[in-house]
Every structure is written in structure tokens, then in C-alpha cells.
Amino acid sequence: MKKELAFKYLSYPAPVFVIGTYDADNRPNAMTVVLGGMCSHDPPSFAISVGPKRYSYQSIVNRKAFTVNVPTMQYVRETDYVGIYTGRKADKFADCGLTAVRGEVVDAPYVEEFPAVAECELRHTIDLGSHTMFIGEIVNTKGEESLLTDITVGSRTIQGIPDMGSGLVLTFTQGSRYYCAVGEPQEKAYTVGRLIHRTKGAEG
Ligand SMILES: Cc1cc2nc3c(=O)[nH]c(=O)nc-3n(C[C@H](O)[C@H](O)[C@H](O)COP(=O)(O)O)c2cc1C
Q: Which residues lie across from 159 on neighbouring strands?
């Protein structure tokens, strides 16, 4: 039997990202989002939903660019700080001791200390109500080499995958409002479901 569930808990836990932008005075700024994720492979695209009162909002509209930075547990305080305070009043990069590096391709800064970044050019803006969805085309990505690993599945080795087993990757739980680490991989996607298929003796 099912009972009513608050919509927020459907994405539970949610990945956490830090969005990098330049303001009208060319000052770098950063804000935390959990309303975000990959939304297309071709063209590679990333969607974030940003409230219109956020200082970052106008920066994204003006510069038509943002970076998506992936924080690790080591930077949980900094990640929370840039999600609490506004760049209108604070230099959040300086306050956190983080380094803003100009994007190689887009007009937005990325966080040098974080292990992965995607540079995005704004392609679509959709007003959804409380938040506006910005869809950016990913035009450049970079990952910290020491955190990338190779995984062997059967006879196939996949190279350059972020290391999930180290407890480094942050997620956010709505409701309880906790940052949680991602644990050990459990079951292989696109694979474990085939067990049902086999049990049923289906074709394909
Ligand atoms: C864990 C967490 C998740 C957040 N997710 C979002 C989000 O998805 N969208 C949003 O507009 N604000 C989100 N916020 C709030 C903004 O990060 C916050 O208002 C920030 O101060 C905005 O910075 P700015 O005014 O410098 O742009 C989140 C904050 C936290 C702590």
C-alpha cells in the first residue's frame, strides 16, 4: 500500500553541484544546486534550476554561460557555505579559500580545487515558476586524474571513471537535509535487470 509522498523525495538522494559564474563586474561567484543533472547526451547538455532571486541568476542570463563543479566530501563546508550566502554581499571564493579559474571555453569560472568540472554554454531558458531551468551545452569537461579509475566488467575494461568507492562523492537528502557520501558500487546498471529477463526466458 502506498501513501502520499512529498514530491521532493522522489530524487532521494540528489547529487550536489556548485555553479560558477561571473557577475557584471567580472567577479567570480559560486552557488550550490541540487536541482540539476545531465539532460541530453547529444548534444551533451546539463540542466540546472535556479531561483530568480539568486545573484547567480542574472550572471547566467548575462554571460550565457556557467560551470558545473562536482564537490567532494573534503569540501562539504565550502559547498554548504556557497549555498547559504549570496555573492551579492560576499566574495565566496575568497571566503572559502577556493581558486576561481577562468573557463577554457566559456565565460564563467570553475573551482580549481574540485575534482570535476563541465563548462556550459547557455542554450535554453525555461521559466518553470519558483525556479528557471537553464540548459547548457557542455563544451568542455575536465576531471582530476588521481580520482579517476578503471573498472573491469566481465571482459571489458572501462577507463577514466570517477572513483565512487572512496566515499568522496556528495549527495544531498531532502527533508533531513544531510550531505551523504556515495558508498561502494552495488549492482551493475544495464546488467542486473537482465536477470529478470533471463528468468522469464524472454527473447532479445
Ligand atoms: C544543499 C543546497 C542545495 C541548493 N539547491 C539549490 C537549487 O537547486 N537551486 C537554487 O536556486 N538554489 C539552491 N540552493 C540555494 C542557493 O545555493 C543559495 O540561495 C545561494 O546563496 C545563492 O547564491 P547567489 O545569491 O550568490 O547566487 C541550495 C542551497 C543548498 C545549501
A: none
